[in-house]
Specification:
The chain is about 35% helix and about 15% strand. It comes from Dactylonectria estremocensis.
């Protein structure tokens, strides 16, 4: 079986849907040749889809894994509920736990995440440790639950987390209201995936957010082919206007997540299962320095690094795949050696 990246509607994987806790989830399933040695569940972030793992799914299948990759709540073929409570880490963790149980019953999964999906991976492991054999995150460090709530605008005004300034715009009304319809959604996606205007004009900057005036100037994003951009755009149109409401809701959850996690913040949580964290050296949204101090929460944390921007899954796919593969071989005590 080829390890080349997935293309839209790739015949090597199946697209399925399931009712999960009253919501319709769309996900892709990749099965290896022969009996799977284990099951990997992959969680995407913003503004991705399950398709964001297109460079990893065939690789993991070639190693003998069954791979399950959902569109997360608010995205693509999965429902985008109005209620913000459906987007909390705790609610999403319950969703993915139920989805995973469809494949492994009372068994365990290996869990991976990127961007918001990385936070979900850490939190899902926190809420359902019995489900997780091992967990990895690309770009997203572990943020321990806090017993004190501080609004993001206050944090930024105090000179901290300047790289999250764009999140204030995303949580507000402007992006959702201004960018509706196929053309605007396509421009938005182009901006996030690195497109620039003829004179280098950016469509997005972490210290400001979307540069609305520059959007009509943008060319083809370097991180998506035209076919891939077409696919992303069509998937974003599935849930109707305002098309960005669901994905942007992930930026509106700070207080609700804090309230859910207070009980854990007070007693703490320790990761006893094997964990892997891969940083991207040029990630402006989640710079490697943000992971300082996270090791103390883990019994068995492996660190890796790739030379890439935030979009390491595609920019540095060989590096990500190789490091995850070697770590998995250690976790599974040599079961992958033939494939590696």
């Amino acid at each position: 079986m080829s390890s080349a990246k997935l293309v839209p509607n790739d015949p090597r994987v199946k697209t399925e849907t399931a009712q999960i806790r009253g919501k319709n989830y769309k996900y892709i399933v990749g099965k290896p040749e022969g009996e799977p040695i284990d099951t990997i569940v992959l969680i995407h972030g913003f503004p991705d889809l399950g398709f964001g793992w297109r460079c990893q799914v065939p690789y993991f299948m070639s190693l003998g894994f069954q791979v399950v990759v959902p569109d997360m709540i608010g995205y693509g073929g999965t429902d985008a509920p109005e209620a913000l409570e459906e987007y909390t880490y705790k609610s999403v963790a319950a969703d993915i736990n139920e989805l995973a149980r469809k494949f492994v019953g009372e068994g365990q999964i290996i869990l991976g995440g990127h961007d918001w999906g990385g936070v979900v991976a850490w939190r899902l492991t926190m809420w359902y440790p019995e489900l997780i054999k091992a967990v990895f995150s690309v770009c997203t460090p572990y943020p321990p639950p806090s017993s004190t709530f501080v609004p993001l605008d206050v944090v930024i005004a105090a000179g901290h987390l300047q790289n999250f300034t764009y999140q204030l715009q995303f949580a507000g009304p402007d992006v959702q209201a201004k960018l509706q319809g196929k053309e605007k959604v396509r421009q938005f996606l182009s901006a996030l995936y690195g497109a620039r205007g003829p004179n280098g004009e950016p469509g997005f900057q972490v210290l400001e957010g979307i540069q609305f005036d520059n959007l009509p100037l943008l060319g083809q994003p370097p991180l998506l082919s035209e076919e891939e951009l077409d696919y992303y755009t069509e998937e974003y149109l599935r849930n109707g206007a305002p098309e960005l409401r669901g994905p942007l809701n992930w930026y509106r959850m700070r207080k609700l997540n804090f309230e859910d996690e207070l009980e854990v913040a007070d007693k703490g949580f320790r990761y006893t299962m094997p964990a892997l964290f891969i940083t991207a050296t040029e990630d402006s949204a989640l710079p490697p320095s943000m992971s300082k101090g996270m090791d103390k929460h883990f019994d068995n944390l492996t660190r890796g690094e790739v030379k890439a921007s935030h979009w390491a899954l595609t920019q540095a796919s060989e590096g990500v795949n190789g490091q995850v593969g070697k770590w998995l071989d250690t976790v599974l005590k040599g079961a992958l050696k033939a494939a590696l």
